[in-house]
Amino acid sequence: xxxxxxxxxxxxxxxxxxxxxxxxxxxxxxxxxxxxxxxxxxxxxxxxxxxxxxxxxxxxxxxxxxxxxxxxxxxxxxxxxxxxxxxxxxxxxxxxxxxxxxxxxxxxxxxxxxxxxxxxxxxxxxxxxxxxxxxxxxxxxxxx
Length: 144
Prior knowledge:
Elements: H1 3-9, H2 23-40, E1 44-47, H3 57-65, E2 71-75, E3 79-84, E4 90-96, E5 102-109, H4 120-143
């Protein structure tokens, strides 16, 4: 390596990715999905990690959507965070790995995010367990 190459190798070089132009269309898609949800009840899920974005573009989308009043953090097959945006019915759903790194991020346009909705099979099991628990409690009360 020459003296010039050695000197140049010490200079940090930064590159900036060109914007993809996906921020505005994605925000419009979210708006159309919210209108559709209000009119028909049809939910929409948008995979933010599945859309090409330059550094900072996802932050622009999240910043534009803002924060609402509801936030939930749960641990179902790994930690997840669900945040209502400033627009009720528009949710940011983020899944993390055990090192708290983002593994997936979605915009979910729905009255209730899928992750928070009780699966139908769980409802049936829950009703049965509650009924059995009530039967046991009543039996115990009558036995005392």
